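Tutorial, part two.
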Amino acid sequence: MDDFTKPAVDCFVESMYSGEVDKLEKGIFEEVNKMAHVFDVSWLTKRCIKFYKTNVLQFENNSYNEILFACEIASRAHSILKQSYYVRLFVRNIASREISKTIFLQRYMADFAELSKRQIDMSLVVAGNDSNIVISSLITHVAKTHKCKKLDKNSLYLLQSINVQEFRQNFPVDYNATVNFLAEVADVSESSEVKGIVKKFAETSCGNASSSSSTDAVKDGEMDCDESDLEENADYNEVEHG
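Running the prediction step on this input gives:
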């Protein structure tokens, strides 16, 4: 319990006695959810899901900070606790509210070099089929920060994580422009890793099944609420629709 703040611990302990979560607030939500997960309190885990939906996702002003707060909770819940349904709820919510993925991701990915792998993965999931949004952020970063002369670790990670086949199929013009851009960077780079990753990106064809990336698992399995999630959370549908 030493890893948690006193308000979060008080909320958790009181809920164990009362069966209610009267003290649950946005500021301690992640800690309480983590305690419910660590101590395997299934009813509290379900109440946390409901709280996320009815409180955290109810953006009063559709402001960037509100959306960012909900996004980071969902991303961390998946990354740390392997709770994938938070991501599903977040993505569904911004779609239903017609919040612009482009505007959100441009700001979310603005400080590209400082993004964690978790945040890059989340960006790809939020972008969904619109993978051109994240590629645009990568190109802007490489052009402004590195003057088109190098690819840093985050750039390489994104190129290896994105579904290149999907990007090429959905945005052939953008794909060709990206290939040309990356080729110029690779030409002046002395890194064999950069040259190899760029070559693989450029040689991807729609018919090459082996070119699908690790992010497919993130989008299609790990960050979706699949049947295994529903089995582990039998009351999920009640929480989701209730």
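Residues 206-215, 220-242 have pLDDT under 50 and may be disordered. In part three we will examine how such features are distributed along the chain.
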